[in-house]
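tool=predict chain=A
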Amino acid sequence: YHRGYTPRPAAELPDGTVLLALGSAENDATAIYVMTSRDRGRSWSGPVTAVPRQPGRRFGEPSPLALGDGRVVLLVREDHTQHLVATESADGGATWTPARDTQIWGLPPHLLRLADGRVLCVYGHRRAPYGIRARLSEDGARTWGAEVVVRDDLRNTNLGYPTAPQEDGGTVFVAYYAEDEDGVTHVLGSRMRL
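tool=predict ok
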C-alpha cells in the first residue's frame, strides 16, 4: 500500500479508536484500506483491506462512518460505474464485508449520522442537470431512500466534494465547490431541513 489518499476525515469509534480509510493505486487497479489508532493518532496499525483490488475497477475517496450499533460503514467511489459501493465492519475495522453496489450514481460521498439516528449521504451529480444530491437511510446505511436534490443548477461537471455537518435545530449545511458563470471555482453552501 502506497500513495494512500482520502479527502474525508477519519471516524472515531465509541471506544476512542480512530479509523482512517484510504485508497491506494497500483497498475490501474485500486484498493481501499483502513488503518486504526488507539492513541488518538500518535501511532497507527498496519493496513487492513476493506475493498480489494479488482481488475478494471478503480475505487477511491472512501467516507467512513461509525454507527451507533457498533458497525462502521464505508461508502466508496467506483469510477467504472460511477456508483457508490458499500462495505461494513462489525469488529472495529479488522474485517470487512464484500463490497456491494448501492446503485447510487454520483461521487464522491460524504456520510453523516443525524441526531435522530438516520444516515445522510451527500454527493456530487456530474451529469445534467449538474448539482449536489443526497439520500437518507433509515436502517444504518443498509438501504437508501429516494434521491433528494440539494441543488441542480450548477454550470458543469467541475463540482462536488460536498461535506455536511448538522447545525443546532436540525438543519444540515452542505458545503461544496463549483464554477461560477465566469469559470471561477469557488465554495458554495446550501441549507436543508430533513
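The mean pLDDT is 93. The first strand starts at residue 11 and ends at 12.
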